[in-house]
Write a structure and sequence with these properties.
The protein has 104 residues and is of the alpha+beta class. Helix content is 36%, strand content 25%. The mean pLDDT is 96.
């Protein structure tokens, strides 16, 4: 079974901001590389969505650490769809997630 992947509002915003940040502060090539690493990691979820652990704030929200990039992807699975909730830098404060996704 292959799962559909949908980027939710906050994940879309984060991806735009990540791309912009690296493009403005480093280079267009680095921006594309980082975004590619994130999307490649997320693509794995279409085949193996249960591979990654649940978070400590919700048994339904899971956490994927992006390979070779300092980002974490938070997502949940409903039926045949993986919903990408957030894409955050490892050094960002993630504590707000427990309140934002307590109903998931």
């Amino acid at each position: 079974m292959s799962y559909k992947i949908i980027y939710e509002k906050y994940a879309k915003i984060s991806m735009r901001e990540i791309g912009w940040y690296y493009k403005e502060n480093v280079s267009d090539a680095v921006s594309k590389s980082i975004l590619s690493k994130i999307t490649t990691s997320v693509a794995v979820l279409s085949e193996f969505p249960f591979r990654f652990p649940a978070t400590n704030f919700s048994k339904n929200v899971r956490k994927l650490s992006v390979k070779k990039a300092p980002y974490v992807v938070y997502y949940f699975i409903k039926e045949d769809t993986v919903f990408i909730l957030e894409v955050l830098h490892q050094r960002q404060d993630h504590s707000f997630l427990s309140e934002r996704y307590q109903d998931k």
